[in-house]
Task: structure prediction
Amino acid sequence: MTPSLADEIGRRRTFAIISHPDAGKTTLTEKLLLYGGAIRAAGSVKSRRAQRHATSDWLEMEQERGISITASVLHFDYQGFRINLLDTPGHQDFSEDTYRALTAADSAIMLLDNRKGVEAQTRKLFSVCRKRRLPIFTFVNKCDRLGTDPLGLLDDVQKELGIDCFVSTWPVRRDGHLVGVYDRDRGQVWLYERTDDHGQSRPVATRVDLDSAELVTAIGHDGADKLREEIELIEIAGTQADLEAVARGEASPVCFGSALTNFGVDVFLERFLSLAPAPSPREGADGSVDPVETPFSGFVFKVQANMDPRHRDRVAFLRVCSGRFEEGSEAVVSRTGKTLRLAQPQEFMARERSHSGTETVAGDVVGLLDRGSLRVGDTVAVDGRIEYPGVPRFSPEHFAQVHMEDALRRKHLDRGLRHLAEEGTILLLFAPSLTGPIPIVGAVGTLQFDVLLDRLQREYSVAARLERLPFHCARWVTGSDAAIDKVASAYGRRRVEDADGSPLILFDNEWTLQRSQEQERELVFHDVQPRRVAVS
Ligand code: G4P
Result:
């Protein structure tokens, strides 16, 4: 029997992993792929590419630098669930990309290093999840090494992030070595057999009771006593699973384990999949949109040009929010009102793209080949009245003029800048009074500039160089032209416009910005691109 649409949507789990670089996101991602059968042996991806990367990296530059730059999507089936894992860049200079991926997620896994706890990037990404009220599931990684005392670590997470933590699994050690995890739901211990293939395969796990002879054999009398005391302590601490608080993103179940040795990964995944939400109604401009009852709708959270140099195409990644994607049907792009024929859905597994053979429903991500009609934030829906809130653009903090070596390639430069701005790699700005026809680019992090120059060279054959401008923050402004000009004409400020013609003011520092805000009350200063302006 073919499953109903509600059943299909109900088995979707669409999420992202948030972590500080080096916490083990790549390793955990590989293990999830391994468990889902999407790869045969963890590490195979890395060794084939002779680089430290997960399958989700695309661009050559990422390989050279060893960082994951673009957000991409991996999907696979596991125990009846369809998992859509939105990969997020680890480097803070690409936080905008990460933010966009999080707008497409229904939940997040927060990965912590057991020696470091909450780190700078975790904090930043957590605050994004908080704003979106995403349910958060915590995995404390690297427990094969001794780290901070687990209860102390949980305490830090609660204090630092203001989220209630409750223990879902707990590390079990013998002589300081991780041998298993206590599963609080079952009241049992999962004991793992060590593999000698460096965690490439799934270890055999045996479940034993807390008072069993097997546990004593595994960790000794003293070990078993100590574990029982720890469990008692956890129970006394009384943090029970409050599933409603989890759903609101106010409490997080915490599992301990090691992505490297795989210990604790299976039980974490099981717990995560059973508690993480399936796609639920999303807020549109005219109220909530039900994922099952409403025909196909979704929004673009990422656009990527030239993903495959052989095709030179653009792909718009669309998070499906309702209904079923039907190839050949027509939908409306809300920003332009234009009709779009839904064609050529793509599945993504690193570079290997294939024509999608499986059903795409709410919760899934579909890649649409695009000739420039779609932008990040666009709603695409069969019912043209649906409009999702869009994906905010952050105000940039670094600015530069783009100069080129060969004036004859100006058209190529303009095209490249336009494409990369549409992708969100940089924010393209114009200030005729300041620079004449020389374009200005803005970025949230300076690595975006490196990516820009690299891609202009590789994909558009344009050798460009950047001349940094002495501004360090910017705000979109709404108000009268006269008021904008008045503020912008003062020392250390400059008026520019984005590609939509929306005015921004650049400031040489935070202090100048603050003074302007205090002095010119008529203007409204926006740190994300204001919506009305974005869609005009
Ligand atoms: P990231 O994507 O979050 O940046 O982290 P990644 O998975 O690349 O892991 C960063 C380092 O931490 C890697 O070591 C990785 O092997 C190690 N690691 C990941 N999970 C665990 C774990 O559970 N236990 C321990 N002990 N280490 C873990 P590396 O030496 O930098 O790289 P590699 O040579 O091992 O690939």
Observations:
- Residues 13-275 form a domain with the Rossmann fold fold (CATH 3.40.50.300).
- The chain has 16 helices and 29 strands.
